[in-house]
Amino acid sequence: MQNKSENNKPVPWFLLLSIVSLLFTVPTATSVFAMQLTVPMTVSANNQPLPPATDDSVTVVNGATRRPTVEDMRKTPKAGGLLAEIIDTASKNNHLLLWNMYPAGIRGRVFGGNGEDPTFAMALGQSGWN
Amino acid sequence: MSASTPVLLRKLLRDPNFIHSSEGLLKRGNTSNLTNSSRQACEQDQIREQNQIRVREQTRKQDPSREQKQTSEGSTSSRWLVSPSIDYLFVCGFAPWILGFLTSCFCGPFLPGSPNAHQTTLSILFIVLSFLVGESHQFTSILRNVKKQVRDLKANPRPIKWGFWRTYLRLQVAAILVLMVNPQLSIPNLPVNLFFAPGIVTFWLTMFAAPLALLLFPVVLMHHICAQSRAIGLIYCGGQDFRLSEWENRLLSFTLWMLVLTAASSIAQPFGIFQGFSIAFSAVVPTTATLSVCLVSVVATALMFIVRGVRKGEWLPAPTSCLWLNLALFVLLGTNPAMIYVWLFVPLAFHATQHWAVAWSTQCKERINSEAESKWLQASHLILPVIAITFFVVFSPALLDNCAVFYTGKPLASLLPNGAGIFPIGVGQEHLSLEFSLAVFYLHYFADRVVWKGQHKGSSADAK
Asked: Over 50: is that where the pLDDT of A5 sits?
């Protein structure tokens, strides 16, 4: 009798809560990641550089049928480039090494969209990183 | 247990922590808050526990060797938070060295604008892990604190008091929050000035406290990392019956504060909202002098423990030695350019994993009665709510923004005015991210100092 009642335990509340929360947030998270971490590859999968762009060359980038401009490249972080940006910033701003590597700082970069941490750049005022 | 006992109460009674507290209530004779049915349930639980103890004693008498074996296994497992290999790698601080070395070897130099496939993979992995392990670790203590408060409130319900001064204080706090969100409603424009005039001190204190919390963010973060390492080192010491004397404790505290100051003057300088703040801070805490004193204190601490080991044969436990040594190296070598690869993994594979290990260890000790539960269920009980809340808090600004765009066609920031000037409080997605970061970190920082105190004798994750 006791075994039977143990087998019929209700679904834990935390499991239900977690699933509901994840159902709400995962689509947003996916869209943020998809938007921010889209990779305009400057090299192909086998590490060979892409052929130089010509005026009539067409590449699909972020759904647009054109080669990314310099402005696009600056604005859109590259998944590989994002880590490079983090390391680059940390080497230039060694006095903020801890913050540069901290998950919240990295999150700022992912949300920022151009490899910088907009939240703390804003917190630092107009001067940007000190 | 009677059928009329509420389900919630039954669940709480099954919880060992509640049983512990209800025993205390019964022993003190303070049973006025308990109903008849709950008192009966408590008594039944007591009887059940006594029966369990009797059965255990009988087993010990019948087969003492088995009991000894179980005790030795228990003492070995209590020395580690998770397991020896995981502890050495992810708690004592060897993982960042190994991962940093591997990253620099396999992925080559990170040149902006030319990521290769390895770097891309590593970046995605790193960012996802920083969400799942790094960002989420803060919520383990916050969630535990909230659960504890709710449990205490259920065990001992207290009505909310609505006296004049309490109500006045709450209204003031509400007004300050409104002003933070919308600074255009500045104090001179408010018609309720006269009512809130005495609260102007509170207002300005809040106005200065928040930017100060932001300025000192890296320093507090460094203190948090050092304090956690010290606490976990002491847990290992406790597990091996290594007691620190008063002087050893004092020197250790001094060394850790010197590490914090060294980091604050080198790799974790305060943010510079005001241009002169960092310069002033550097003048007050000069790098070279701090580094020299820190080096001396680290060497003195190491010598102190070596001398004790040689004289009395009482050596500092190996995990503690490794943990504190690695912490000192991370800070002292932090300015070396090659350390960037190692530091890439310090917050993730040193600090956050330490926290998860303590959370896991504490849960295993507290849920000792639920041996029937599989490890997977126990792990999901710990991890799932934390991950869910992390996702919710981290992505809620984007979620709100998306909702605003969906319903009104405009982003959130354009609907309500954002803060300006030195106090960047607002409702836009970026503002909210910053505010949530600060709030979550400071909540975690303070919750961490109290919440891991063991609720049973022997669970001593209470040194923070």
From this structure: no
